[in-house]
Amino acid sequence: MEGHGFVLCPLCGERIGVYEPMIVITPYGARRTSRAREPLLPQSGAILLHDGCYGIEPYERGENG
Ligand SMILES: [Zn+2]
Fold it and tell me: The whole model's pTM is what?
């Protein structure tokens, strides 16, 4: 059932659907896109995250207040 070219989100370990909003991390910054819009991104070596997972950033774990 696992087709070639699927993408796993490194934060939650789940697949990123073709039409799901996702975040791509590039040397120029992060931006929102989708695999449907940019099907070659997974092959480019870029870091791809779910749009929702991107909010969970290391800097979020600051003071617990
Ligand atoms: Zn995720």
Answer: 0.72
